[in-house]
Design a protein that fits this description.
Distance between the termini of chain A: 73 Å
Number of helices of chain A: 11
Helix content of chain A: 25-40%
Helix content of chain B: 25-40%
Number of strands of chain B: 24
Strand order of the largest sheet of chain A: 2-1-5-3-4
Strand content of chain B: 15-25%
Strand content of chain A: 5-15%
Number of helices of chain B: 19
Shape of chain B: globular
Largest sheet of chain B: 5 strands, parallel
Shape of chain A: elongated
Oligomer: heterodimer
Order of helices and strands of chain A: EEHEEEEEHHHHHHHHHH
Largest interface: A-B, 66 and 73 residues
Chain lengths: 334, 642
Amino acid sequence: MGALRNFRVWRGDADGGELDDFQVEVNEGEVVLDVLHRLQATQTPDLAVRWNCKAGKCGSCSMEINGKPRLGCMTRMSTFEPEETVTVTPLRTFPVIRDLVTDVSFNYQKAREMPAFAPPPGVAPGEYRMQQLDVERSQEFRKCIECYLCQNTCHVVRDHEDNKETFSGPRFFIRAAELDMHPLDARTDRKNFARQEQGLGLCNITKCCTEVCPEHIKITDNAIIPMKERVVDNTYDPLVWLGRKIFRRDQLAAQSVTPAPKPVIDTADHAPHGSVWHVTVASPLDAEVGADGRMPVSEVAFDRAGAASPFGETVTFPLPTTELTYQHPTEEES
Amino acid sequence: MTETETGARENIERHHYDVVVIGAGGAGLRAAIEARLAGKRTAIISKSLFGKAHTVMAEGGAAAAMGNMNSKDNWMVHFRDTMRGGKFLNNFRMAELHAKEAPDRVWELETYGALFDRTKDGKISQRNFGGHEYPRLAHVGDRTGLELIRTLQQKIVSLQQEDYAEFGSYEARLRVFAETTITELLLNDGRIAGAFGYYRESGKLLAFDAPAVILATGGVGKSYKVTSNSWEYTGDGHALALRAGATLINMEFLQFHPTGMVWPPSVRGILVTESVRGDGGVLKNSEGKRFMFDYVPDVFRKQYAETEAEADRWYTDPDNNKRPPELLPRDEVARAINSEVKAGRGTPAGGVYLDIASRRPADFILKRLPSMYHQFKELADVDITKQPMEIGPTCHYVMGGVEVDADTQATPAVPGLYAVGEVSGGMHGSNRLGGNSLSDLLVFGKRAGEFAARYVDELGENRPAVVKSDVEAAVATAVAPQRRPGGENPYDIWHDLQTVMQDLVGIIRRKHELEESLKRLVDIKERIKGVGATGGRKYNPGWHLALDLRNMVIVSEATAKAALQREESRGGHTREDFPAMDPKWRQVNLVCAFDGTDVVLREQPVPTMREDLLLLFDRSEMSKYLTEGELSVFDSAGKGGQ
């Protein structure tokens, strides 16, 4: 027989709820999910909790344990002090259904908007040839068990319900990166899709998603940052840059940087809505402005006449050709 | 609106589909893809969230004779391996189709976006596995199942995107009902008319009008105390089929792994690879005795060491020493563990100790068993370099299942009902080779979807209608536990059922124990009639379990009865009182049917293998499986001398 430990579990539904205190037997070597199962079997048969494999492979038992997004099956009781109260709450970013079960349909909706793998034309099944080195990059992202802990922890949606419409979240950034890096995917617009339709630009690289990933996928370093860099490569245009430097933001809006109209999403009933991923034209980046609403005008305080080089002071021209990101258009693209 | 028994009016959602697929693991998804590709409106019923099914647990790979590693591999070699693994009780036609079609099904996954590990020349890499003559398993590290389910899930999404482009709705022709459980199949004049169930999330009830239903619900492991299976494995499809009038075959054959963790609970059921024993791990009882030396059968005496000193020398000098008895065949090890536990020398959790910590230095263990080390360290804080593991038999896979036509996966007794994957029976015979389940569900998933669609086409407008009174009866059964708030706790009944199955119908079976189990199952069946559920309908696991119990008990009854009747040992069925294989029993499938209250058994001949397939084997090999009469094929074909 193990010792009695204090558990505090959130119980309730969409109409509200509260933290209930329990004293429950805990044995050596158990994980939080074992203890929740004991609660079900002995005290609260109707305690709602999702789980499947209990081996960290399916990503069902996502919850917040002492405020941290964790898998219940991968959180050992030995990581807590014996007299510590363990508090278990549902994922905060998603609407509660009951107790520890939340409505994660947001993620399935975003998955649906992600253009599928496009098989290379003219390559028969069985004729696919890829090198291990090339598939490994995408394989890292395909380790994802869709526990949605990264989605839950990402502050872009955790604290801002409004952003859910335009922001797909880390899970789907790695999906975009996975397809972008797939050696045989026939689509070439994965990066633009990530920026224009998935809201990649809203991510400001705090790496919270990487920290909570139970599969230890380097979400930020290996997917988000490379995708962001590629987006910048694609959309950079010196003239637009100059325009952003000279005009105030409100003037800019009146001119050429009107964003494309977004499809109206009725999130109330999770009605499926379309994505416009077939649009491949990049729209310019938004300008950064200071507190006065103006672009920083550095020329005034600059030590030489004329505008500064948009490429910074350390770059000399012509650039060595090996450092160019230019790709000669192929027949297919032109 | 439907009247329930108390007169309260209950809204029941109605849905109309051509094909309803119950189960969203690999088999169900592959079947749904095929039905949708045939233009059928298809519903996928997923007991958990979409993409969480038990298929994710498969580690090894998908067996397919692509010949990427060894060009000598082909479907005939794969067929032979499969039949040998199943001890020739397999449905030969299923084994043949499986071996022939598996490569195409695996290659197809690449066109859906799957990324398997590669060979140097860029093809799909294949790995060795027990029972397969050549390296044959397409894999992605040790997470092949995840890759498979994710790939199929993403293919479903891509089909939904096509439908969105065409019809403006993602769910125009293919809809996933996540966290939905089917409790009853609806029939009309013996043919499938639909299905009835509930949303787990809201507890609301729903009914499907559909002329074709494909069962893809997986296995039955949750009837056992120690299992590697997830909570979904309550034998739903087996039970639905039985109640609908279909039959099950081979239910006595369950695959147990002799060394699964039994303690701590956080890792209970997780398999401990045999290489722990190969690398020096030994089995000890609670008295600390290395007991395997007491269990070497006479036939193995010559190959196995008699003293610990000799056994220990084998690891470094296998040519001049006999093998340690820990490396006896799987069923011998299982029998020994079973005997020790039943003699009262087991651990408190009902297992024995597997000790490598005291025999090998920590760095050796870390180097040889890195993933084992990390798995137990992370999941259970068990350090296998410092302490022994507590292990015992783990229920892993059920070979038995719904009796189906080999080519179409249709149940002969119930038109419109199909079964595929672990819930179907016959393909694996009495034992399944590793890697054959992932390829099984791809090959026969496609076939089930294809032939269900064809059946719907042939019906035309002539679809069986759902009978209103059947829906009312289904409602009454589903809400019954809710009307008994003072009824017995479902978790208690479940626990007792698991104890009966684990202790009496486990890996090693005896006549008197099986008889005892049947007595206790009668008692449990009675108790289930009085099971109660409190706490409302909304996402209520207690209620869900109360409803699953009746499926578990009927499947357990089928297994116990079939195990009692089959008086021999073969593959996944080991009878201590009949330890040998009997060629006469090879000719027999035990068929389970349901008479309304009990499971009834009858014997049915195993389909006779076609001559051209039989001649792929040597007469000498077949002589231990076949009766003299059956062996005459070799003589008339002029191959008698082999």
